[in-house]
Amino acid sequence: MPLTKEEKEKRISELKDKFEKASLVVLTGYNKLKVSTSDQLRKQLRDIGSELKAGKNTLFKKAAHGTPVEPLSDYLVGQKSLAITISDPVALSKLLVKFAKDNETVKIEGGVLNGKYINAEDVQSLSEMPSKEVLIAKLLSVLIATPTQMVSVLAAVPRKLLYAFKAIEEQKTNVTEGNA
Q: What is residue 71's DSSP assignment?
């Protein structure tokens, strides 16, 4: 059953809102994709806080107009779907690249990362980056290592002075024992 004008306007409004907030939108092409496979992808996307939208390209184009996702409008030809995330673009790209490798019917065609168009190779490169949690852990280790090293360097000066005093004390003790 075709959508009414009000339903179309509502969907366009919802999509436009998602496009405005999205950190990454990936355009995927699919041909002869089974419903069960599509449902499996949707579930995996939901698990990482993302979603997959399939629909008419004209609705996508209207929703993309005036948003950071507008560069994708030129590529909306044929059977297309859009994977959208607001939170972690690396997790979305990793999932889609892996899914596309496992399913020949899904092809990554490009995307928009924080308002800038990226091609399929860029999505692939993004998927090879460490996750957000790993990057934060690396940053924290660098931030913690610097003060720790500084404390070690500063503590070395009094420690060496203490060793010198101890050596002098032992030397004087040996000299006085030798005189006695």
A: G
For the whole model, what pTM was predicted? 0.71
**Type of residue at 124:** Q
4: its two tokens: 């009414």
- Cα end-to-end span (Å), the chain: 112
DSSP character at residue 85: E
Instruction: Please report how the helices 89-102 and 120-127 are oriented relative to each other, as an axis angle in degrees rounded to 10.
Output: 110
CATH 3.40.50.740 fits 5-129, yes or no: no
How far is residue 24's CA from residue 85's CA, in Å, rounded to a whole number? 6
Residues recorded for the chain? 180
Domain boundaries, the chain: 5-129, 130-180
**pLDDT tens for each residue of 116-169:** 999 999 999 999 988 778 888 888 888 887 777 777 777 878 888 888 888 888
Alpha helices in the chain (DSSP H): 5-21, 35-47, 57-64, 89-102, 120-127, 132-179
SS3 42: helix
| Tens-digit pLDDT profile for residues 45-67 | 999 999 999 889 999 999 999 99
- CA dist., res. 90 & res. 92, Å (int): 5
Distance between CA atoms of residues 96 and 90, nearest Å: 10
